[in-house]
Amino acid sequence: MTQHSHPPDDHIVLDHGTGAQLSHELLDVIVDTLGDVYVGVMEDSAVLTLDTPRIAMTTDSFVVDPPFFGNGDVGKIAVCGTVNDLAVAGATPRYLTLGMILETGLPIRRLVQVLTSIRETAREAGVQIVCGDTKVVRAGEADQIYLNTAGVGVFHREPLRMSAVRPGDRVVLSGQIGNHTVHLLSIREGLGFETRVLSDCAPLNGMLDTVLGKVAPDAVRSIRDVTRGGLAAVLHEYAAHTGRIITVDAPALPVQAETAMAADMLGINPIHTANEGCAALFVDPAAEQDVLAALASHPYGVHATTVGVVTERTGPGVVIRDADGRESVLEEMRGAELPRLC
Prior knowledge:
Elements: H1 21-34, E1 55-62, E2 68-69, E3 72-73, H2 74-87, E4 92-103, H3 108-125, E5 128-137, E6 145-154, E7 170-173, H4 179-189, H5 205-214, E8 220-225, H6 230-242, E9 244-249, H7 257-266, E10 279-283, H8 288-296, E11 305-314, E12 317-321, E13 327-329
Parallel strand pairs: 4-5, 9-12
Antiparallel strand pairs: 1-6, 2-3, 4-6, 7-10, 7-11, 8-10, 9-11, 12-13
Helix pairs in contact: 1-3, 2-3, 5-8
């Protein structure tokens, strides 16, 4: 793979977006950095071969503040977010598109950092980038870099649906909650937790393939990645769809001690916080232990635990139970109480 060297004062300029020589030079940087995960042939459309009658498709845009953080950046989040959206549907992620909006003044070394994260995360997830687009805007019109990705996955099993969730099903979390939010807020607010609390950003398709491959086909009813709005938003979505009250045991929530401390300082509840490497699985109670064991066998699932249950009680609503067994209604957040973090 060819490596381009750029001096510290090498920045994005408007002419990088004109389609002329500077655009071609920028494209060379992008293609060379992405390396083997990019399979585009510079046509206006990618031509793909799929060996399935059904596909999953998703798209998302990524505006992260800060776009560069302790153990990742907006590029890693973009791949993980799209891959995870496909994986929680039960699909195998195969292809991604990559759209970039670059702000004038962005150091090209920072762009290369993002592209390197995209390359390494795509390799881990086993996906290829098949086409893309780059636009350049004036200073002040974007926060350094915005990304858009679309993803295509194929089904080798039945798709997972919310409609399959039943009363009695257990709510299993694949990992700790709140770390991504606390990590980024600590950087922004200067709290000093960012070296002790790292973002959980990770592609979850390998872990979920492990789980779904080890349990019966209907053992896992449905899966959702726990991103914006946090676990609370996921539970409210499922409670509304099923018409059943979901109860959560507060002491069972997997929250790192430093995360809980920082959240308390910030006045936020980890159950509402965004994550980038955590999934909520709705599981047949007969398969609960098998699912937990399968999750724990993967590095991203070592903190997996059961946190709640879909009850027989009609709702919809979410109830949280404290250590003394007292129940209270878990309200869904209505607006922008937390900043955009993914």
